[in-house]
Amino acid sequence: MTWFCQEQNALILEIAVQPRASRNEVAGVRGERLKLRITAPPVDGKANGEIIRFLAGEFRVPKSHLTILSGERGRNKRIRVRAPRVFPAWLSSLSNASRKNSAPPVSEC
């Protein structure tokens, strides 16, 4: 398993979230998950909302195109990005780095 896969017209991301960070950013890969730092605290869904806003901006899609499939109350999340308009530079650079250390990512979920 890798930290992302493709499902029809959607991208599924496996994410490890660090809330209360100094800024919103992708911070590499931790194990088999994309590490995402978010400024919001994990209180009353604030961190989840910030994750959705951040990723919507990265993939240039409306927030309604993102769905938290699992992990809504935890740090490890599985998120679907429906019909991404662009693929951020970090996606290809991190996926290439992941391939060097493990099996190539699965194209389908």
TrEMBL record:
NCBIfam families: DUF167 family protein. Signal peptide: none annotated. InterPro entries: DUF167, YggU-like_sf. GO terms for cellular component: cytoplasm. It comes from Candidatus Kentrum sp. DK. This is UPF0235 protein BECKDK2373B_GA0170837_101427. Pfam families: DUF167 (PF02594). It comes from the Bacteria. Belongs to the UPF0235 family.
